[in-house]
Specification:
This protein is α/β, with parallel strands linked by helices. Helix content is 51%, strand content 9%. The protein folds into 2 domains: 3-87 and 261-335, no CATH class; 101-257, Rossmann fold.
Length: 336
């Protein structure tokens, strides 16, 4: 946030004491805002528990902006960032950034390769990976999807990023294009159903639906052709935060509930993000603070990755202590 426009200012030696004080205040508010955004990123939905803190931070930013006007800073240095919502995922990942999910990967792969074929009614078995936001459901799905044995087992594999916009037609088109490279429009569900059945017929397939939010039974009913088109052994792997999604997918018995990362895995992930290779030993004063920060993350991989990346360019003990001592941690703990 503030780093994006403070850097050009800080390269100049600041002799003005008032300006130095203002920059220090602004940095502290910036860290509070960054931490709040991290909590938003791992909550299912930002809720009322953050309302007062949001107002407090907005007020502090407004006060800092008003105070900063008297320094005549160049607005051209400010960089505006816009968010397009949730980041689209894919089947590709960096293996070196994954820690502590070896056992879970083995268990998911075993389910995908199991001899259990179809559910009642002849539908492909659905395996939902369920857990709170930020635990690493997508990462676990990527690990299983790219496993060598899994790739050998299935005739076709398709990865579909779903998110909160559950668009049945778009899901169908993605499957068709991935398997046949067909970019036809297919204006109706009927034409999509026929084409899906055609490309999946007599094939053992694995389809991943990543980040599914819908709890509307009608949405799942429209998606049924994906479950019934292939041969025995076809599988659907779904990642979702809600257990209700598993029930709607007719898969209460195969639901895989993902737990938090272990303490050792959390620390390894944080070190990988916060310290360039070999740099950890150069900052022994930061390590105990980092351990305290990691312990506050509750085993949530996304929070650890984000905080590690945030702290990577910061080598001041004070900067790390601001994150560790933020009141926002207490706010989240009181809710839990």
């Amino acid at each position: 946030m503030a780093d994006l426009f403070l850097s050009p200012v800080l390269v100049v030696i600041v002799d003005n004491r008032a300006l130095r004080i203002w920059l220090s205040k602004l940095k502290e508010v910036d860290y509070e805002a960054e931490t709040l955004l991290l909590l938003f990123s791992v909550d299912s939905l930002p809720n009322v528990k953050y309302a007062d803190k949001v107002k407090e931070i907005l007020h502090a930013l407004e006060m800092a902006a008003d105070e900063g006007l008297r320094f005549n800073l160049n607005k051209g240095n400010i960089v505006h960032r816009e968010s397009d919502g949730r980041l689209e995922t894919s089947s590709f990942f960096l293996d070196r950034e994954v820690f502590g999910r070896e056992r879970e990967k083995v268990e998911i792969v075993k389910l995908l390769l199991s001899s259990e074929t179809t559910t009642i009614g002849g539908e492909a078995q659905c395996i939902p990976i369920v857990g709170m936001g930020g635990l690493g459901k997508t990462t676990l799905a990527q690990l299983a999807y790219n496993d060598h044995e899994v790739r050998r087992h299935f005739d076709f594999q398709v990865w579909v990023f779903v998110s909160d916009q559950f668009d049945v037609k778009n899901i169908m088109r993605t499957v068709i294009h991935s398997l046949s490279k067909d970019n036809s429009h297919y204006p109706t569900l009927d034409t999509l159903y026929l084409e899906v059945r055609g490309v999946l017929q007599n094939k053992r397939y694995l389809i991943v639906l990543d980040d599914v939010w819908t709890e509307n039974p009608d949405d799942w009913d429209k998606l049924r052709p994906l479950f019934t088109a292939g041969i025995d052994g076809s599988k659907m792997l779904i990642t979702a935060r809600s257990k209700k999604v598993a029930l709607l997918a007719n898969s209460p018995n195969s639901m895989y509930c993902l737990k938090e990362l272990s303490k050792d895995a959390c620390w390894s992930l944080f070190v990988q993000r916060a310290f360039p290779q070999g740099d950890k030993e150069n900052h022994p004063d930061l390590l105990p603070i980092g351990e305290q920060i990691v312990s506050k993350c509750g085993g949530v991989a996304l929070a650890i990755k984000a905080l590690g990346s945030l702290l990577k360019p910061k080598r001041s003990v004070r900067e790390w202590e601001i994150i560790r001592d933020s009141e926002l941690w207490n706010l989240d703990e009181s809710e839990n």
